[in-house]
Amino acid sequence: MKDKDDDIYTYRHFNIEDPRKDPLPSRRVRRWAFGLRELLQDSAGREHFAKFLSKEFSGENLKFWLAVQELKSLPISRVASYAKDIWKEFLAVDAPSPVNIDAASRELTRVKVESGKPDRYCFDQAQAHVYHLMKSDSYSRYLRSEMYKDYLNGAKKKTSVKGIRSIVSFTGRKEQSTN
């Protein structure tokens, strides 16, 4: 039996940030609105988007996309077994976390995975389809969501307080040096 940390959807090679750390700068959170790629490249952005998707019952899309990204970075010796794991988890008829892709992409991917020697790119068409779904649907809803707006406003407030503290301490030092 696999350890939970070995599940293909745990993002084990991504640096998920500890939410108890200092709040993110608002500039960083605002960058997430530049595009889905920008959001997915930021570890905190990915995590926040994943939470949003799970509330919308579509978290499997991001999990699939991340698993395929991970597949592309694996040593060739692990690619075939990992590709089969991805297929079973997300695309098989009885998949526990099924993603919604078109029939042509599913069939092309199935043929590549079942060929006996799937490569790192056997999910490219399916991944592109899922990315398009996230970009055109989930991502736009995320940017309009209260969840994102609240996170952005919280980052602005925390950044503002930090900025005020630095001004206060700067003027305090200045006053001390003139006395």
Can you put this structure into words, describing what you see?
- One of its GO terms (cellular component) is cytoplasm.
- This is Regulator of G-protein signaling 6.
- GO terms for molecular function: GTPase activator activity.
- The chain has 179 residues and is an all-alpha fold.
- It has two domains: 23-55 and 145-179, no CATH class; 59-143, Regulator of G-protein Signalling 4, domain 2.
- Helices cover 68% and strands 0% of the residues.
- The chain has helices spanning 26-31, 36-41, 43-55, 59-73, 76-91, 103-114, 124-144, 146-178.
- Helix 4 runs antiparallel to helix 5, helix 4 crosses helix 7 and helix 6 (103-114) crosses helix 7 (124-144).
- It is elongated, with a radius of gyration of 21 Å.
- The N and C termini lie far apart (70 Å).
- Mean pLDDT is 83; it is low at 1-20 and 160-175.
Order of helices and strands: HHHHHHHH
Total of DSSP H or I helical runs spanning 4+ residues: 8
Percent strand: under 5%
Instruction: Count every beta strand, where a strand is a DSSP E run of 2 or more residues.
Output: 0
Could you write a compact summary of the structure shown?
Residues 35-152 form the RGS domain. Keywords: Signal transduction inhibitor. The protein contains 8 helices and no strands.
